[in-house]
Amino acid sequence: MAVQREPSLSPGLRQQLAKIVGAEYCLTDPVARESYAYDSTPGYRAFPAAVLLPASTEEVAEVVRLCAEAGLGITPRGAGTNLSGGTVPVDGGVVICFTRMQKILSVDLANQTAVVEPGVVTAHFHQAVEAQGLFFPPDPGSQSVSTLGGNVAENAGGLRGLKYGVTRDYVLGLEAVLADGSVIQTGSQTLKNVTGYNLTQLLCGSEGTLALFTKLILRLLPRPAARRSFLAYFTDIERAAVTVPTLVEAGVLPATLEIMDRITLQAVEEFAHLGLPPGLAAMLLIEVDGQPAQVEAEAAMVEAVLSRSGASEWQAARDESTRERIWSARRAALAALSRRRPATILEDVTVPRGQIPAMFAAIESIASRYQLEIGTFGHAGDGNLHPTILCDLRDQEQISRVEAAVAELFDAALALGGVLSGEHGIGLAKNRFLHRQLDRTVITLQREIKRVFDPQGLLNPGKALGVIP
Ligand SMILES: Cc1cc2nc3c(=O)[nH]c(=O)nc-3n(C[C@H](O)[C@H](O)[C@H](O)COP(=O)(O)OP(=O)(O)OC[C@H]3O[C@@H](n4cnc5c(N)ncnc54)[C@H](O)[C@@H]3O)c2cc1C
After folding, report:
1. What distance in angstroms lies between residue 144's CA and the mean position of ligand 1's atoms?
2. Is the CB of 79 under 6 A from ligand 1?
3. 116 and 201 part of one domain
4. pTM of this prediction?
5. Is ligand 1 within 6 A of the CB of residue 388?
6. pLDDT tens column, 413-424
7. How many A from CA of 246 to the centre of ligand 1?
8. What ranges in 309-465 are assigned the alpha helix state H?
9. Which of 267, 302, 330 delimits the end of a domain?
């Protein structure tokens, strides 16, 4: 738990900042600051000295310039839904929150691109482009609140990652404010561009440590004309896990291939009353999409695999409302699990898809050895699992077991050729584990890159760059 004493700004600096963004958007009273002291990651909390809500690139640049002169740290923030402590202002500097910058500036039908401000809510953007026959695939489970700027900074994934990739695959360019307040433009509106180093891709996933995004140029696709969804129930988790690589080996590339285990299903059933059969060990959610003929062909392949999979029962979603109910329940998996215990520690380990069965076995063994309840769900098609430890942070003895279990989860994923994080980032929560995946030379190189962008170390201090043991 990060503890932060009462940070504050000098009256002169506060006045200057308020002049830039407007007094009502420069929050300094303790109650307002407390709302920005934490994010969706349990166990981290630190008060900022002030919270600034700028409305334009110019205001962001002026605020950053002033902070740079004062040597004050800046924590960028969208909706604060990240799960790695990435927006907790541990240095007691200022938070720059982008939620007022929420305009969709243009949608270009001919080029299938859009230019947006960073505070646009992901689901609002989906709705806006879908109304024009277009499609923005990245769909994190938090889409109804998360912002596109936060999605880019975390390189967020989602339920459609297997076929469509992650946020990074849809970012063509950025307008960004650097740590000295200068404004740069990276990338372009063109699909092809090999002029210079690919700074756009470097900034995607940089977790607010290199620059502050003020505009995003996003790539869109035509909206898929058809889709078919399937549910498969298993009384044996291993059979479900093995079905994941089997489907892909059979030549199907589902848009969505999600898994929920027994504990998650119980929680979801209590929460959403789906009428699931009792005694389930796992459920797979599968969706294929595209042109109607292609969807029919892929659906037939899914049916063939499911009929040989050992599923106790499987079915195609009967209609759109059934599909929506099931998908909403999947998106509510974390919320459903979090109703069972005071805290949920959600991890994000990712392994090569073929190792999903081995990762499930490792999670089960860790849960049993540390006597912890772990509900696992996730984007199985991407090899990205969210083992979620249900616990009580007030119980010190339990916390030590949780910490040991988390370290073992990471080691198990790495031993299977996996990674520490598939989509939630390193932030604060995984900072001390970074060296288990990246060697000293790579961590040093990353720190050198950080120094070039941010010589004073003002942008999102304390995050993502690891601790060299
Ligand atoms: C219920 C739930 C489900 C989730 N499901 C998924 C999922 O399926 N896939 C997934 O990938 N994640 C998921 N997440 C995690 C989280 O929602 C994503 O990381 C999301 O992209 C964060 O967006 P945000 O607007 O909340 O960003 P924040 O949490 O506010 O910020 C995230 C990071 O971005 C930086 N940042 C924010 N705005 C800017 C900016 N304009 N410029 C530079 N840096 C910036 C912050 O400093 C921070 O490091 C989920 C979270 C929850 C609570």
Report:
1. 12
2. yes
3. yes
4. 0.96
5. no
6. 999 999 999 999
7. 31
8. 320-331, 333-338, 356-369, 396-415, 434-437, 440-453
9. 330
